[in-house]
Amino acid sequence: MTVHFKQDEPDTRNLLDQGSQGVIGTAMSRPEGLAKVTGTAPYSAEYRFDDCLVGVLVTAPFTKGRITGIDKETALAMDGVVAVIDDSRMTARPAQGGAGEAPQQSPRQICYYGQPFALVVATSFEKARHAAKHLPFSYEADDVSDIPLDPETAETEAGDGGMQAGDLAHAMATAEHAVDVSYTTMGHASAAMEPHAAIAQWDGGRLTVHASLQMPNYNISELADALDLTEDKVRIVSRYVGGGFGSKLGLSEETTAAALAAMELGKPVKVVMSRQQVFQSIMRRSESSQRVRLAVDAEGRLTGFGHEARVSNLPGEEFAEPVLQSSAFLYAGENRLLALDVARIHQMTAGSVRAPGEAIGMPVLEAAMDCLAEEAGIDPVELRLRNIPEKDPGKGLPFTTHELADCLKKGAEAFGWDSGPRKPRQNRDGEWWIGTGMASAARVHNVAEAKARVTLNADGTARVQSDMTDIGTGTYAILTQIAAEMLGLDPANVMVELGDTDFPRGPGSGGSWGAVSIGSAVVIACDAIRQSLAKKAGIDADDLKLKDGKLQGSQPRSLSELLDGGNMSEEGHYEPGDISDDYTSSSFGAFFAQVRVNRHTGETRVDRMLGAFGFGRVLNEKTARSQCLGGMVWCIGSALTEALHFDPVDGHLVNCDLAEYHVPVHRDVPDLEVMLVESRDPAASAVQGKGVGELGMCGGAGAIANAVYNACGARLFEFPMTPDKVLAAMPD
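Structure (tokenized):
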């Protein structure tokens, strides 16, 4: 039976706080953790199948044009080569998250350097790789001088998220204090630990694909559409995913290629992208150019707020990095201008990378706010507190909850923030300048439709099933805790099965909506089971108390006794309703950082960093804290080291591996402190929580930039702030 709950208004039932098991919010370790660290949890490329063949993608060595011929016979004559797959149904670029339909196909038409266009299949990886490297093919390449590669000079078009209210120019001209600053940010790679991989099997009637994907609920539609199959002929399995960060939201080239090869050859086919191929052909975060204009009155209250940005993507792609998402509501200011332009260039597809929009928009805005605080002579924390709006300044809607002030105040106290006069170069330790900085954090809250099946077994154990994925975020643990709390079970007696499209459709892992969306579906299913249990027990559901597998009361009974040899199963269906039209919902936070900057080399080291985060209910303290810690590490990377570099001549990605794309390593990361500022948000979801996965990297790079300025006087307007840039910006 399916129980449907459409949330059109705040859910004040507060079901999770009515349980007696006491496991919600606790720091329960991941139930699958032991399997992962011992290597017994199979990732997509690790399933074993007899007679499994191996495919290696062949990629284009030019930027734009078309493949005119492929010499398959030469490749087939090579040792171990079984086939060369050159099928018009192969995908030429990844699908955007939530597309639900095949991405661009016709792979012979090349639109970016490194685009896959064929698959060589052999009896071993080494033989397939050799043949792929030596596959003869002919092509016609467009003149690179005619190909738009530079977003600064390419044609642009308007993107979503723009708005105008009042007269910003007048507000700037008449303000007591004003700043007008421009920034650039470099592109980012997701750089997930597990590369993109798929193993496809075709039994003549149905396709089964083990793939590393974040959103099987959409991916099954994308794959079926690409292959001209109906969805009932396709099964996707993604039980364990070694990180995604947005790169695995949509169907990508290796999965389609493996499926086509398996269908043609009648044998299992494995395709794993090399690290270089992942970097060259999977989603990138767009670089950006941003202009921020801020105007305040004599009391330091914003009268003018402007944020304009330019990003890029391939022609034909609808996605545009949503730089302005949080700028739309974070601070007050009646005279407002938001504008986003998209430059059409021929680099690989731009798409969602962890915290799309806020990850690069928030650091820029928060760095500009620091400039304004200095100009107005107001403490940076106080400036932000004075400008927290009562309602969404763009839409006029109330917020579901608003934790920013609490995060700012509690974070400042815990960090030991000095609210006195701030001047650069006040503290030095030998050759190191020492300084502090802060920034606000915000990440829009999203929820998605979700379904989950919960079965209470006759032996008093429970099983939760959904095609929802766990990409390292703790979904297995969180759903275990929810079911255990609602049904009064020891978490050890709850089994969670995820990542299989034969199960009910979950929301997928993306955009920080996963836990609260699928968690809401599990709560709904469990509540229905509780209603049935109460009826069996002959009591009102509000009086039902379950703990340790027993019905509590004057005459305790075990769940097994109550079930009397039968199972009880319900499918929860959670659907966001019209409530999104009535409220603006976001998670909030605050970052505080202390850095040291070498006066001779420009090297920057983060000494300590604290983040205070508010996102409604905390479902699992350990996984929530872990997500925030991971986000803060990303902040260090985007502030100081991470950048995609493209050759200006032909647009190919220069630093296409982890040797040259510099993610933070242990030496770069100090002990990080996380504060969880908990509340209840009944308008956000049925679990009264909001997303946290991305919040930890929304603005933290700005706190580091502000700390660099406070340390050494180098005000930088380009991210990342590498030593050469810092040294050049240092005052004499």
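The mean pLDDT is 97. Residues 379-445+585-729 form a domain with the Aldehyde Oxidoreductase; domain 4 fold (CATH 3.30.365.10).
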